[in-house]
Amino acid sequence: MIRADTIVAISTAQGEGAIGIVRLSGPQALSIADQLFSGKRTPSRTRGGRFLYGRFLDREGETIDEGIVLVFKGPHSYTGEDVAELQTHGSVSALGALLTRCVELGARLAKPGEFTLRAFLEGRMDLNQAEAVNSLIHAQTDTARRQATLGLQGALSKRLDGMVFKLARTMGAIQAMLDYPEEGVPEEDRIVPLLAVQNELNHLLDTARAGKLAQQGARLALLGRPNAGKSSLLNALLGYERSIVTPIAGTTRDYLEAHMELVGVPITLIDTAGVRETADVIEAAGVERALQLGENADLVMLLEDASAPREPLDVNVPEDRLIRLQTKTDLGQVWHDDRYQSVSAITGAGLPELRDRLREKLLGDQARHEVWLSSERQVQAVTAALEHVQGALTLPDELASYEIELALNHLAELSGKNVSEEVIEQIFRNFCVGK
Ligand SMILES: Nc1nc2c(c(=O)[nH]1)N(C=O)[C@@H](CNc1ccc(C(=O)N[C@@H](CCC(=O)O)C(=O)O)cc1)CN2
Ligand SMILES: Nc1nc2c(ncn2[C@@H]2O[C@H](COP(=O)(O)OP(=O)(O)OP(=O)(O)O)[C@@H](O)[C@H]2O)c(=O)[nH]1
Ligand SMILES: [Mg+2]
């Protein structure tokens, strides 16, 4: 179905650039281009896939800029509709004037993500792929980009297709059995495929944490007693002197954040005030904050000075989000406790092992070449599908068949079949304008 209106947006980043693009999509895209473009050829009378060189004109016929028009004829375009790309010098003013001209000629300003929404509605990509487009734009690390690219190529949808096939076949087998009970359903057509799908869904859910972290990044707080070496370790991980280090206990009083990439995850490192009882109101407020930051962080590194008398700190952080470190091991004192890793911020000893540990804690053993769940929407749909598959494994045939149907609905939801307009709108609302 071709939408009646033609949308327009500046598709390149705001600001100065070598080249800028205004993109038109819809039934009037090429006729609008005809009216504002002057060159040897006419966009609407050009074959798709060609570019035309010439000048862009404003309402008075004055030249806005020289540039090129790229012609795409539906369905052979990003959106599946007729598309004209007006490529100019990357001048804020030229792009603005060109946009205005397109609106004067009848185009409507595109909403965020509306080009990709149209690509979805035209069936050029499914919802998982559309979400991947957005992830790709926002990817801050190679890991996030690689994941988004896999998603864009349909990797998640392909995995789901395999499961849908198994479920549909099982449902068929059960229904046949209900019609002809004397036949019975052989185990390998009933339990085996359901168990396989259950496994696969569980496995997919395991990837969600890594997927979320690769996308949104992780917050990593350093906690410990005063002088434990938190600021020194932060500086050592960053590779520059971000935080003040002195031999005085209580140096860091407020928390401080620094950004870096670690193991392909965008990391916010948080240095905090050393935790101790104190009469100093300012320091006490800092301690309060430190503990709070620890509770809210994705991971906490809890530091203890191995060269000082032991005075462990109790923090309200579950074990799986905790990494215990003994610091200053270059001073020659180390205790033996498997729960602790040793580091020296001064010599760098133990830092590679710490990075490995962080990778394991953050990404687990998720294979980098397989696709990860990356949005809350995906996690919810897979969780719901899994519940119904589990239902199907425990319930008698008639109910099992219904459970499988529900599981199939949730998997279909993932790729964007039978999803409400609201859900779709919600997804595209977070996109950039022009995407
Ligand atoms: N200038 C420009 N660069 C861009 C995009 C764009 O729209 N414009 N893209 C998007 O934002 C991405 C590329 N995605 C695209 C996907 C499909 C088609 C397309 O026209 N496909 C047709 C023709 C294929 C062919 O000729 O081989 C088709 O699939 O039928 C274009 C871009 C990234 N770079
Ligand atoms: N030998 C040695 N000294 C260290 C090491 N790490 C830190 N120190 C020293 O320990 C002292 C305290 O270090 P900081 O990094 O300021 O400790 P902190 O945990 O941030 O302390 P507060 O901000 O007061 O809570 C400084 O004199 C550092 O030079 C280390 O690995 N080896
Ligand atoms: Mg400090």
Descriptive account of the structure:
The chain is of the alpha/beta class. The chain folds into three domains: 7-110, Gyrase A, domain 2, CATH 3.30.1360.120; 130-207 and 372-419, Four Helix Bundle (Hemerythrin (Met), subunit A), CATH 1.20.120; 222-365, 3-Layer(aba) Sandwich (Rossmann fold), CATH 3.40.50.300. It is built from 13 helices and 13 strands. It has helices at 29-36, 92-104, 114-121, 127-138, 142-152, 155-179, 187-216, 230-238, 281-296, 351-363, 376-394, 397-415, 421-429; strands at residues 7-10, 17-25, 37-39, 51-57, 63-72, 83-90, 108-109, 218-224, 256-262, 265-271, 299-305, 322-327, 340-342. The strands form two sheets. A seven-stranded mixed sheet has the order 3-4-5-6-2-1-7. It has a six-stranded mixed sheet with strand order 9-10-8-11-12-13, sandwiched between helices. A hairpin with a 6-residue loop joins β1 (7-10) and β2. α4 (127-138) runs antiparallel to α5 and α6 (155-179) packs antiparallel against α12 (397-415). The longest helix has 30 residues, at 187-216. It is flat. The mean pLDDT is 93. The protein binds ligand FFO, guanosine-5'-triphosphate and magnesium ion. Magnesium ion (MG) binds next to α8.
